[in-house]
Amino acid sequence: TTAGGQFVVNGLAQTGGHEIDVTPANVAGTVFDVGTAGGTDTLYARLLEANGTLTSWQTYSVTAPAARTPTVAVASDPSATRGQTLALSTLVTISDPDSVGYTTLELWDSNGTLAGGQFKVNGIAQTGGHEIDVAPANVAGTVFDVGTAGGADTLYARLLESNGTLTSWQQLGVTAPAARTPTLNVSSDSSATRGQTLALSTLASVSD
């Protein structure tokens, strides 16, 4: 594999776990690409002689320092503004020092509503209460819209590594001052006139 290491015959990458036949004419065009993930790859070689005899398999290996897998770190925002749009990079940081790459950034939003706060991936609002898969190419286009109602929204992030391993969920939060809900005030009119038309504003008012 690209990560674990692979033979390449005349530019064609070869998979593992089976015999790879290389004709004498193609030996010069055969190379071994060391895996991007590092570690040890065990290899074997033998000859099919011109008389039909097979030599014994000979074992050898190629070892490179193991690459550091990507990591994810999170940061809460305790002083957001209602309706504010936060770049994902202010909340979630992915570090990949050895350029190994990863398969998916997985997000989770406990609210996932316009009022409570929600992720948007390339402009598409995401609902809450389920895993939100973000491909590496879409991470830059992901934002978090702070809820119009304010309050606290609990979020989570983790990585699906290229080798299939999942990192642990990392918890963070975004908090904005809670919006004051509208109030209704009413007043009676004890001296109305029969047939009179009263403006609603003289009887009820809404404060928002």
Explained architecture:
By secondary structure, this protein is mainly β. Helices cover 0% and strands 40% of the residues. It is built from no helices and 17 strands. It has strands at 6-9, 12-13, 30-33, 39-45, 58-64, 71-74, 85-87, 92-95, 102-109, 118-121, 124-125, 131-134, 142-145, 151-161, 170-176, 183-186, 204-207. It has a 4-stranded antiparallel sheet, with no helix packed on it. A 4-stranded antiparallel sheet has the order 12-9-14-15, with no helix packed on it. The model has no long low-confidence stretch (mean pLDDT 95).
What is this entry, summarized?
It contains no helices and 17 strands.
Poorly predicted runs are none
Order of helices and strands: EEEEEEEEEEEEEEEEE
Basic shape: rod-shaped
Mean pLDDT: 95
The Rg value, from CA coordinates, equals 31 Å
Q: Main β-sheet, in a few words? A: 4 strands, antiparallel
Beta-strand percentage range: 35-45%
Structural class: mainly beta
Report the span from N to C terminus: 61 Å
Q: How many strand segments? A: 17
Q: Which percent bin holds the helix content?
A: under 10%
Q: Number of helix segments? A: 0
Which secondary structure elements does this structure contain, and how are they paired or packed?
Elements: E1 6-9, E2 12-13, E3 30-33, E4 39-45, E5 58-64, E6 71-74, E7 85-87, E8 92-95, E9 102-109, E10 118-121, E11 124-125, E12 131-134, E13 142-145, E14 151-161, E15 170-176, E16 183-186, E17 204-207
Antiparallel strand pairs: 1-2, 1-3, 4-5, 6-8, 7-13, 9-12, 9-14, 10-11, 10-13, 14-15, 16-17
